[in-house]
Amino acid sequence: MQVIYPKDIYSLKADFINCIIYFNMISEKFKEREEKRQQGFKVIYDYTMGVLWLGAGLFFLLNKYLMKGFAFDSLTSSIFGIACVCYGVFRLYRGFSAKK
Questions:
Q1: Using N-to-C axis directions, what is the helix angle for 6-66 and 74-99, rounded to 10°?
Q2: Number of domains observed in the structure of the chain
């Protein structure tokens, strides 16, 4: 039977604590890299959605001049077009401000 001395137990305890600290440091670095990567994707997503919402807003605002065959109500399409343009500008602003 093997004898375990107190100094061996302390050594194992210290190694275990050092291992936990090391893995905690690695996981924090991973979290920082992952948050930075997700932030970059969020900026690209905000720009893309901003451009799409602006395009939709301009389509609904200008459809009575561009396409004569569509039977959209003028007031409804104008209100929805203005709302789309405002939301598109907001998404572009949010993407621009998050980039800083």
A1: 150
A2: 1
Residue 36 has which token pair? 């930075």
Record the pTM. Answer: 0.66
Which residue range forms the structural domain that includes residue 75? 6-99
Determine the distance from the C-alpha atom of residue 61 to the mean position of all C-alpha atoms in its chain, rounded to a whole number.
29
Residue 1 lies in a domain: no
Determine the Cα–Cα distance for residues 64 and 79; give it in Å rounded to an integer: 13
Check: CB of residue 99 under 8 Å from CB of residue 36.
no
CA atoms of 68 and 4, how far apart (whole Å): 91
* Digit-coded pLDDT (tens) for 23-70: 666 777 777 888 888 888 999 999 999 999 999 999 988 888 877 766
